[in-house]
Amino acid sequence: MSPAASPSGEADVSDPWVALEPGTDPAERVRVLRRAHETFTAVGTVPRPVRAVVADSWRRSARAGVGPDGTASVELADGDLGTYRAEHPLARVMPLFRELMGTFAADGEHLLAVCDAHGRLLWVEGHLATRRKADRMNFVPGARWAETAVGTNAPGTAVAVDRPVQVFAAEHFIRRVQPWTCAAAPVHDPRTGRVLGAVDITGGDGLAHPHSLGFVQAVARAAESHLALLGPQNDPVGAPELTALGRDEAQLLVAGRRIRLSRRHSEIVVLLARHPEGLTGDELLCALYEDESVTPVTLRAELARLRRTLGPTLLGSRPYRLLVPVESDVSVVERRLEAGAVTAAATAYAGPLLPGSQAPAVVRLRRRLADGLRTALIARRDPDLLADWAHAPWGEDDLDVWRALATVRPTSAVRSRLAALEHELTAEPVRERRSPW
C-alpha cells in the first residue's frame, strides 16, 4: 500500500514504518483509525489510510484468534521471572538500555520495556505514574505481548516482522491499548542473527514521531554492538543453533560447543529439526535415500554414529527425534519471509541449503526455500536486493531475477548479462539448466 498524501497535497516521502506522516493532525488520525478498526473487527476489511504493516498485523492477529477486547496474560512471575531474566542474553545489555533510554523515559513520562523473542515482557521501567496506568492493561514484566496473544503492538510486532516498527493509538488491535503509542526495534544475537527480543519505548501520542522510531533502532544497534564486544555466552535459555545454509556440512552450536556434522548427519539433523514430533525409520529412509535398496540397517548405523557425535541427551529414538528444540538458519529465513520481512530474510540467507545434498526431502526443502525468497525479491523490486541475489553464485544464472533487475536497474552491465542469459536459453532450449538448489 502506498503512503497517503499529506493534507497539503504533497506526496508523502516518510518511512511507511512511521505512524504519522508530516503535517498529519493526530486527533483526526485517531478518529480515522478508530473507524477503520471498527470496520475491520466487524467485517474483516481494512480501509485506507491504515498502513500496510498495521493492516497485515491486524490480519495476523485475527487469524491467531485475538479479540479486540482481550488482555495480556502474565506467564512469568516472582521467582520464575527473576531466574528467566537473569539467564536471558538481554540481561547483559540492560545497563546500556537504562543509560541510553532511562532519562528519556522518566522525563517524558514514558516507559522503557524489553521483551524476549516470544513477546514476553522482561523489564518495564520508567515514569512511576505511567507505570501505574500500564499496570491496568497488564503491560508488566512477565506478561506475554506477542501478536498472537494481544494483537498489534510495537514490541510484539517488532519480533514478529523482525524490524523496527511504530504503533500509534488505534493502530493497536486491542481497544484498551489504543490510548498508547509505542516504538520498538528487534535486537539480534550478533553471532547468529537470531532475534533475542526487542527494546521498546511506550507512552503518549508524542511518541508518534520519526525520532522515536530512529531512537529505538539506534539503541537496538548499540545493544548488538555491545553484545558483540562482550563475546559469546553459554546461554542456557537459548536453543541449540543449526547452521546449514550455504554449506555442505552443517554446524551445530550446543552450549558453546561447535559440532561439525558429516554430510549425511547434516541431512538427518536438518530433517529432524523440521520435524520436532520425530520421524520413523521408514520415513527417514524415504527422506534421505533415492535408492530404495538401502536397508534400515544402514540407517540405524548412521544414527548410532550421530548419537555418539551429539551425545545421548540430544538424539532420541522411537521415533527418531531431537530431544531439545533446535533453532536453524532455515527456520529464521522462513519466519522472516512469512512475516514479509524480505530484507531481513535475504540477509539471513547464506546460500542454498546443503547444496551438495541429493537427499529427496532436503532437495525439496532447498528448492522451496530458494524459490520462496527469490519470488519475494522479484515482487519487492528492490534493486540492491535483486543485485545481491543475481551476483551471488546461486543467482548468476537466474533469468527471472536478472529480468527483474533489468527493469529497476537497467545499466549496460545488467542488460549485457541478461542478453547473454537469454541467448544461452534460446540457443540450447532442450538443455536442462543447471540449478544450485
UniProtKB/TrEMBL annotation:
Pfam families xref list: GAF
Keyword Cell membrane: no
UniProt entry tagged with the keyword Cell division: no
Highest taxon in the source lineage: Bacteria
Chain intervals for the UniProt region annotation (Disordered): 1-22
UniProt domain OmpR/PhoB-type: residue ranges: 256-322
Keywords assigned by UniProt, alphabetized: DNA-binding, Transcription, Transcription regulation
Entries under InterPro entries matching the protein: GAF, GAF-like_dom_sf, OmpR/PhoB-type_DNA-bd, WH-like_DNA-bd_sf
Official protein name in the record: GAF domain-containing protein
